[in-house]
Amino acid sequence: MPRRDYPVAAQRYRFLAFLVGIGLCEGSLMLCGATAQHPIPTVPASGPIPSTAAPLTYVRFLLPEGVRLTAYPGTPAARLLPGNVRLGLRPGYSYRFELSGLPAAILPPPETQAVLYPEITVYGSLHMRRGLNPQDFPVPVLLSKEDLGRALQGAVIVKYVYLEDPAQALPAATTPDSPLELRDDDETTARQQALRRGRLLITVRLGNRIPTPDELRQATVEHTILLPGMNRLAAPAQPPCFPPAVVPLYDPLVGPRPTTEECFVNGGDRGEPLGIGPRQQLGGLEAGEVAVEYTLQQQRHVTTSNPVAVCAPRFVIRRAEYAPRPLQAVHHLAVGEERRFPLGLHQRELPQAGFHYQRLSAVQSQQRPSLYFNQVGVSLFAAAEQVQAVAQVSGLKVVGVLVTPEQLTAYPTVAPLTVSKQIDPPGARQPGDTITITIRFFNSGNQPLGQLAVTDHLSPRLEYVAESAQTSRAANFSLTPQDDGTVLLRWDFPGDLLPGQGGSIRFKARIR
After folding, report:
1. 182, 216, 261, 372: which could form a disulfide with 163 (CB 3.0–4.6 Å)?
2. Where are the domains of the chain?
3. 263-312+405-511: which CATH architecture?
């Protein structure tokens, strides 16, 4: 039989299907991990190296005062813990915990004590980055007094906890002890919103029926919970299982998409490019970006700063509730008669024609422009999206270097205005922490710059601290709230900025 050559894309997906093992775990379709000691070798990705997922997902229980928690309930390994305990859980497993010592005010009469058994399923973990320790950012398991009371009345509470995508962040203030919780009408909506707006990490179900001792023992997988005082975990007896909905599939030759949920970026120009309109108005400034306007030789220009990343993971909870409803049914004796007749169905379809037009999207040529230069001074060769090369001509000598837009803002003698942005203190931060933002600018050209204006459109994750703005030069400061909950900070500097002169702006912001 002759050999058949499959297209490259088809070979990739056949290889992907070979790598992904689909099994059946307890009657539901799940993706199960292997128990082999040697991992399967992977093909190095051609793009940026992705961060590594933490082996454990650390959770912190936020329970009413006096409520106690038991890990491994109904087994010899059961351990009673305080209500605000932090635990490390292996992803891919479901866990049953026991809640005791419930407040007397929420107990239904004539009960004097009761217990609840919330179920937690772990789907993923934080990705370890430089300066980010997953133990310092536990996923909140918030079970309020209202949640416990509703569960005792027969309701089922479902919570989807996800790591928020900074690009879809909500401008709401939060702290580790007061996470953002949003309520949805049903569980389907809550799950869809969690998957759409971030990376789903855990689900919490409260109010299920009380499990029997045999069910508690069967649901327990040893060596899956890192309890307080433990430094390591032995290998679990069973492999993890994940539902396909939370497992991102990717081309094994290209590699996974780099994660962006742990950190949000502030500064730079990442969306629509900045520009000056025909009426000399600024355009293209989006949330989280910085624009610096100036006048050079009676023409208005705009530049930006370098982007800086703030690693401050924020978790959001989507809550749904199933409340018990009264059911009334009336049964009567009835006689049913069914008759069937042969039926005929005729359907005619007229011939149809479809037309599709596709516009020209790319042009490929053997020759491409390489450089554009002037006889004197500095000149730029710019593409549609970013600066690709810079060159300086002095006589017959040409000196060229490749730079990126971020480097260009701080490249001496190339840009007439150099702008940089810095955040202090460095390292990962918690929601509720206060940081100091410093914007520095410097006239690196040989001509004066006039009508200098710096505009910082703060990210939704940042809240400006009132009366904290300071400048090294005299400036007119204004703050403009936006419809999406963000704010525009603007500084207008009168006079000219002479060659070799510079200045700085410093203000404080609170991480939401």
Report:
1. 261
2. 8-258, 263-312+405-511
3. Sandwich (2.60)
